[in-house]
Amino acid sequence: MTEEELRKLEEEEFNTGPLSVLQQSVKNHTQILISCRNNRKLLARVKAFDRHCNMVLENVKE
């Protein structure tokens, strides 16, 4: 696959797959509830994220 094809595939997955929830949150500046492994929950706004679910969060409440 070419680099362009990979970019289009990743963009399509961000818009239709499970990561679309994060994508919509970034676009609309809405808060999301994140459940962590240690059974804690975070309420935050997502500033940015990547395909590995690394996130830049703001206004985080635990």
UniProtKB/TrEMBL annotation:
Keyword Ubl conjugation among record annotations: no
InterPro entries for this protein: LSM_dom_sf, Sm, Sm_D2, Sm_dom_euk/arc
Record-linked PROSITE patterns: SM
This protein's UniProt keywords: Cytoplasm, mRNA processing, mRNA splicing, Nucleus, Ribonucleoprotein
GO CC annotations on file: cytosol; small nuclear ribonucleoprotein complex
Family: Belongs to the snRNP core protein family.
Name the record gives this protein: Small nuclear ribonucleoprotein Sm D2
